[in-house]
């Protein structure tokens, strides 16, 4: 099992970030980590918005709430006075809101939606969906009591946490507005795209990566970090998720290496089992040795992947494998594990 890092890994610069983007290869638990990070920030007394952008309804089961939509919803109030709000950002709804706020197309926008023009616009230009989603998130980070907002939503948020697309698509998602700004030379679309791009490339935004100690997720993580750095985007925490406790102490290391090398006296083990009156001691000894060797080989493989991650020189957080999976009962444990390793988030 990798060694947990010392506390206070959360640099002062990150404490001021308003937009925390969480990405990772599918199956690594990025949605759960995003929810844990948002929960930890809310537990520190902040007003937090947690947003998913892929319309998978993956957050609701983790948070223990009904399916999310494009309306910001209060899902948890913490003892410290923090608030956790959540929503599922929808490109079509974001376009309708954009038309209403920036072009005052209330009834006209509804007509466009009814005739299918809105769905057509977002389907024939897939990048437009990313632009609209990022625009919605930008609005949430910049909102103040003076800005227009949907009735019933908070006047402002301290932090926005995004359950972002997976590593293979996250840079394209974040850079969509930069491409639009290059195409739209003038006008409000150009101004909006430039403003979003400026925030994405500023100290206000940080991208956290989630992985597990397996070859493919680690490889994708390394590639994503290279791509993020090349694009000038700030990387934050590297979260190694689903870390298993190997249960080994220093006294077990000799036996561990013996199992790896195959240097184990199978007859002696069988004799001990026979003395303990274990049925079929020879077959039981063989199966025990096979299981121990497989366990040792897996730990070695995980150690090799951890060495690859260590070379990235990013502040690393280790989150444990949870019995029964991720959900509203186990989420506070992950949030506490995160906070204990990165120090206070405020």
UniProtKB/TrEMBL annotation:
Positions of the ArsA/GET3 Anion-transporting ATPase-like domain: 20-178
Domain of life: Bacteria
InterPro entries, per the entry: ArsA/GET3_ATPase-like (IPR025723), ATPase_ArsA/GET3 (IPR016300), P-loop_NTPase (IPR027417)
Classification via Pfam families: ArsA_ATPase
Protein name: Arsenical pump-driving ATPase GET3
Species lineage: Bacteria, Bacillati, Actinomycetota, Actinomycetes, Micrococcales
